[in-house]
Amino acid sequence: MEDTKSHYDLVIVGGGPGGYGAALYGAAAGLDVALVEMGKLGGTCLHVGCIPAKELLETASVLRTVSQAEEYGVKAGAPELDMLQLMSRKQGVIDTLTSGVEGLLARRSVTVFSGVGKLAGGNQVKVSPSDGSEQVISGDNIILASGSKPRSIPGFEIDGTLVVTSDQLLSITKVPSRAVIIGGGAIGVEFASALNDFGSTVTVVEALPQILAGCDKDIAKVVHRSFQKRGIDIRTGIMVEGHTPTSDTTTVLLNDGKNIEADLVVISVGRRPYPDLLGLESVGISADQRGFVPVTEFCETQSSGIYAIGDLIDTPQLAHVAFAEAILAIKRICKEKVTPVDYAKVPWAIYCHPEVAFAGLTEAEAIEAGYNMEVSKHRYSGNGRAMIVGDTDGLIKVVAEKLPDGTLGQILGVHMVGPWVTEQLGQGYLAVNWEATVAEVAEFIQPHPTLSELFGETVMSLTGRGLHG
Fold first, then answer.
1. 157 within domain boundaries
2. In whole angstroms, what is the distance from residue 435 CA to residue 400 CA?
């Protein structure tokens, strides 16, 4: 324990992006804040999620670039992967960022308690550190931000050796010869991409008809084709039925009978909320059957003065969404004007190769919502910067509203797949979020030669006067 004080303006349970984001924003607003964390500050995102996963993917990118160096007139020889150095660098990045979070909290006078935080009735939280002691603190308001855990599936007991979660994969020190990724969502395709670049023979098994089920179909098709060209075996519409392990390998059993031998099985079927230790019943809060805590549009729970944010509630499990919900909750606590998060417009970024980024409605969602619309698509194959960097696989797709008079209204969705699109989505997200029209965005001047000018070209073509297509 770092403080003997027992009452605060705000007590936060959970120190991931939502929790520490709420602590920093609340302290900046003048609140006296306590933060309770049972593990390491930074949560899933910093330690077993966003940051380490992208570190592996960046190493994969460097490995891919060096292997193609001779195309650019650079003789570098055949690259070799050093997993120990990779893990060392990954941990260095994590440690630096963790120290940064700790420093920010200290500078804003947030009191940090190390231990399990459990609601104890009323406005109280019981803190139980690992030494067996206990302390009860209270807050005028409480924010629950306990995060999530990897989901498991029947027939696959997690042993950390043959069968691992996405968390555990981030710490492997040996590249598997053959890997099976169960689940073709964002996490699954990122790991499939990295392991393929590392030299593994990779199979992705997805129960749904397409990988990246939440993406626009044209974007998912590009990733699917690109993966196949790289030798990644993708099996969609297939169910797993268990596995038969031997001493150091296993056979994954599929419902179509086309079983797969593997040295490693990665369970990547999403994450579940983690309310297990919160003691919700003590304040009359009931999680739903999936474990999510029900909240209002302002992240308020069934119990007055208690909020829930991040992976604990049924919203997109993204760190930046947790940050947004943290800010919303603090503004609500401070009785400031606040606008609920529009979850249909949040930006998404997936760091496989090719990268994926999008915001707003897919073409199918726009049709389902009853919009008359116009769609524009442009490929990176004709983009000068993409040719220069040697990465032309991908496209940009813009979905726009078609008004009754035949003119085009607001931009409904922006969908990207290709080189560095996770860094290019910004102007597309702003267009969607600010409900900008096609005519307004078409007037933006795009720097040349850039990858991002393809977005401008895609929007401009909707006016009927595109330059290059």
1. no
2. 10
Q: Is the peptide bond before 129 cis (omega within 30 degrees of 0)?
A: no
Task: Tell me how far apart the terminal alpha carbons of the chain are, to the nearest angstrom.
Answer: 63
Structure tokens at 467: 């330059």
In a domain, 1, yes or no: no
Q: Tens of pLDDT along 332-386?
A: 999 999 999 999 999 999 999 999 999 999 999 999 999 999 999 999 999 999 9
Q: What are phi and psi of 410, to 5 degrees?
A: -75, 155
Q: Which one of 224, 243, 378, 448 is the catalytic residue?
A: 448
Residue indicated by tokens 């297990």? 276
Chosen domain end from 269, 303, 327 = 269
Radius of gyration of the chain (CA): 24
Whether 136 and 4 have beta carbons less than 8 Å apart is answered as no
225 within 8 A of 92, measured Cβ to Cβ: no
C-alpha distances out from residue 101 to 54, 317, 321, 355, Å: 19, 20, 18, 28
**Catalytic site residue 320?**
no
Q: What is the pLDDT of residue 467?
A: 85
Give the residues of the chain that fall short of pLDDT 50: 1-2
pTM score over 0.90:
yes
Q: What is the amino acid identity at position 324? A: A
Is the Cβ–Cβ distance between 25 and 19 less than 8 Å?
Answer: no
- Residues 413 and 216: beta-carbon distance below 8 Å: yes
What are the residues whose beta carbons fall under 8 Å from the beta carbon of 63, sequence distance 6 or more? 79, 81, 197, 198
The DSSP element (H or E) to which 141 belongs, if any, is strand 135-144
Q: 12 near 22, Cβ under 8 Å?
A: yes
Query: Within 230-346, where are the H helices?
Result: 319-333
For 85, the domain range is: 7-150+273-343
Last-in-domain residue among 246, 269, 292: 269
